[in-house]
Amino acid sequence: MGFMGYPRRNDRRLSAALASLGLAWAGLAGAPTAGAQTDAAIREQVTPKAAPRLTKAPVLLRFVEAGYPPVAQQRGIAGAVTLDVTLDAAGLVTAATVLSAPDPSLGEAALAAVRRFLFSPAEVDGQPAALRLRYVYRFVLQAPFVPRLPAWLGDAVAAAPGAAAAAPAAPEVVVGRVREQGTRLPLADAAIAFPDLGLELRADAQGRFGVPRLAPGVYRVRAVSPTHKPETVEAAVRPGEQTTISFYLEPLIDDPFVTVVRGARRQTSVSRVTLAGRELTTVPGTFGDPVRVVQNLPGLARAPYIAGALLIRGAAPEDSGTYLDGVEIPQLFHFLGGPSVLNPEFIERVDYYAGNADARYGRLIAGAVDISSRSTQTQRLRGSVDLNLLNAALFVATPVSERVSIAAAVRRSYIDALLPPILAASSRKATTVVPVYYDYQGRVEVRLRGTDRLSLLVFGSDDHLDIATNEPEDDTAIDFGAKLRFHRLVATWQRSFAGGRGSSRLQPFLGVENVGFGAGATRVDILSLGGGLREDAELRLGPAALLRWGVDVELRQASFDAQIPLPAPYRNPAAPIGGNDGGPPGGGSGLTAEVQPVRVDQLLGSVGGYLGAILDLTGRLQVLPSVRVEGFFYYEKNLRLAVDPRLTARYRLDTATVLKGGAGLYTKAPEPQESNAFTGNPNLVLAHAAQFSAGVERTLFVPELLLDAQLYFNYRYDNPVRTEEVIVGAEGVRPRRWVSDGEGSSYGLELLLKHDVTRRLYGWVAYTLSWARQQQLAGDPPARFAFDQRHILTLVGSYRFGRGWETGLRFRLVSGRPRTPVLGGLLDGDGGFYSPVLGAEGAGDEPLFHQLDLRVEKSWLFDLWRFSVYLDVQNVYNAENPEATLYDYRFREAGPLRGLPLLPTLGVKGSF
């Protein structure tokens, strides 16, 4: 080989050509053209450096499917879109332009998809390098399926030319249906083959197929679906008879809750964690409840026992928002640690925002939990029954017509029915409080034209406490009660516009809530009637810009109706019982037997709107600016406005690493009991919070393993806080009770190492390091939050062994909550009782909490249904975990109140 790889026979001609080129260049430049200088010029021209060489071509790692523009699809436009694509050294698409396209809409759709592609880094001369390439994206219209038929059968099928997925014309000698094993779902487009005949056809949308004109005999018939195990049977064809075949194909992923998506859901926030599929129903210690799984994620403090409170980043439960499809719901969990108020069959996924929720979410100053409901549109009757030691649940869904489906679910606890016989059989006297609850959901879903949907959802919950005892009624004489119930009706209209580039969801809703409790002569009943309207819309402005906006209106008429015993005269009307900072009890001196009726009516609500965008500024940087403007009104003439700007950003550093950060303001109105004239202060202002966070996401080793690390800081101000101030007026002295001077803060580190759901395994390790402080009394410095927990470690893992067996473990290790020491008791002579003498607020700590939970499940898959048996064991090694300290009436003797003991829950579930 010669110079630059040319054959030797070309050396002479190449050298002469280069010499001539060098002489011409030298002459034009005014350089000498003879002697040594000329030879040097020639040598300089014919010995350039070797041209760069592509040593490793880029490989497409992440393909993004482009949406087929509806207009082009309707007009039958298809073809190839040619694009010029620029990649950086990390394989990210930094620029892309359309060179040619059969239609502008196809070019725009392909451009939007290609900009989200991810390639392996290209290498030039062995080093990563930027590269330009040409990419062809093809749009293909799906043609009607044409079966492969032997020549003798072709005439029979030709009777219905062009009929996609249609059974051959009668007479049909062999007919059948292909469905999924366990769920009975029809497998549309499943392939049906007669290998001995060279015959292949396709099942229709209902999974049906038919074959005419087969000679008598025995034939092999094979059903194939890409997501199921194939099955082959033998069918006997007899003269004058019709042979029927029913295929039930076993799914390759045996999971009734699996969600199949094309491409990963796009992450557009700083702190969102999305749970779906098996993660929702098989986490140990959660009783199979999807919403309880959230309590195992970073940023959430552990609630006592198995309570359902959401304690997000050092804030009280009422400071966070809980939503169903974006509409706020008043109650998330049943009493005393029961399950959530929604049946798992109605839940598609759960989005958890520890902080920096975007402007779609309002009326909160902490985190948010948004539950997305599952579509109940169905082609067949289906349902499930779940029975365990705590409750029973029933779900059923059925089609009414081709476009209309209905679904319903109900759940009822029966601890109140089981416990009394157990106590009656016991020789030891006992009395306890037991929760009684039920919940229900009903939904009608209608498919309109195109992708539009209309649905009507009604759901509700009812909780109250009952007394279970084996003691004589005269010995117990307990007068105690509590109730919490709500009912809600939500209509949803989902539609698309602008040729499919925009979508909208309109949701009017109505609701009623009732809360009540009583003890002795005290009775309180709170009734709230309300409704609202929410609309969320988005419009794709181009490949790199998505505009989002919405309206959020909520109104409530609340009434507070109570019978409250009158207190004896106060020495200091504002001081709480027990005093403060270890001082003597300056407050209450007992209650009288006389009761006072109280009724307070309030009109509450807010009218807000938001505007935001998702901007892909480069192939690496994504920015989400948004602003929420909301007017709040509450007790009497309080009308206040809030403007909350928010910003989040994500920057892809390389193929495996994303940097992210966010900042924003959040606002909520004071609680009704804080802002009315009887129990609160009508002059309270809005409560605010400023939230900041920064973090990094990195894929480790395999695509399913993701590390998410975040630092956060939340500052809350203008929060309602109790005060000892009094107001002196013409009617006498009365306590001010609340002022808007409270402040608090929380900051820390959150780590989540999560292995996404695969066929066998899922799990995560969550760790939170946090500090949370808030004011307890106006004028005092912030003290530790009542549920401040410095270290929170949670390990969750579940493994599927095969043959229907799945086992999971959950382990939790949590620092103890703060505890205010009780130094002794002091007799109040006026009231005739002892008051505790308290030490410094939050000066002590409850003991370290640790607990191991286990779940074992065995499933059997039959042709028409599925059956499972599961055992969920909490506190496997029976750790004591004291939750509080109990004192005698003089506050001299104390003992621990132990936490949840070993608690096994056995259940069975059948679904069809």
Largest sheet: 22 strands, antiparallel, barrel
Cα Rg: 35 Å
Classify the secondary structure makeup into a structural class: mainly beta
- Distance separating the two termini: 73 Å
Uncertain regions spanning at least 5 consecutive residues: 1-48, 144-170, 255-266, 570-589
Q: What is the β-strand count?
A: 53
The overall average pLDDT, rounded, is 81
| Global shape | globular
How many individual helices? Answer: 8
Estimated share of beta-strand residues: over 45%
Helix content: under 10%
Would you mind describing this structure in some detail?
The radius of gyration is 35 Å and the shape is globular. The chain has a 22-stranded antiparallel barrel. A five-stranded mixed sheet has the order 16-21-22-19-20, with no helix packed on it. Strands 11-10-13-14 form a four-stranded antiparallel sheet, with no helix packed on it. It has eight helices and 53 strands.
Map the helices and strands.
Layout (H helix, E strand, L loop, with lengths): L10 H19 L5 H12 L7 E3 L3 E3 L7 H5 L4 E9 L5 E8 L3 H11 L3 E2 L3 E2 L2 E2 L2 E9 L14 H4 L14 E9 L10 E4 L4 E4 L5 E5 L4 E8 L6 E7 L5 E7 L22 E5 L23 E2 L9 E2 L8 E4 L2 E2 L18 E7 L14 E6 L8 E7 L2 E9 L4 E10 L1 H10 L6 E17 L5 E17 L3 H4 L3 E18 L4 E18 L2 E21 L2 E23 L23 E26 L4 E14 L3 E17 L2 E12 L3 H4 L11 E13 L5 E18 L3 E4 L2 E4 L2 E18 L5 E14 L8 E2 L6 E12 L2 E10 L3 E2 L2 E7 L4 E6 L5 E2 L3 E13 L4 E9 L7 E6 L6 E5 L4 E9 L1
Parallel strand pairs: 9-15, 19-22
Antiparallel strand pairs: 1-6, 2-5, 3-4, 3-8, 6-7, 9-12, 10-11, 10-13, 13-14, 16-21, 17-18, 19-20, 21-22, 23-24, 23-53, 24-25, 25-26, 26-27, 27-28, 28-29, 29-30, 30-31, 31-32, 32-33, 33-34, 34-35, 35-36, 36-37, 37-40, 38-39, 40-41, 41-42, 41-43, 43-44, 44-49, 45-48, 46-47, 49-50, 50-53, 51-52
Helix pairs in contact: 1-2
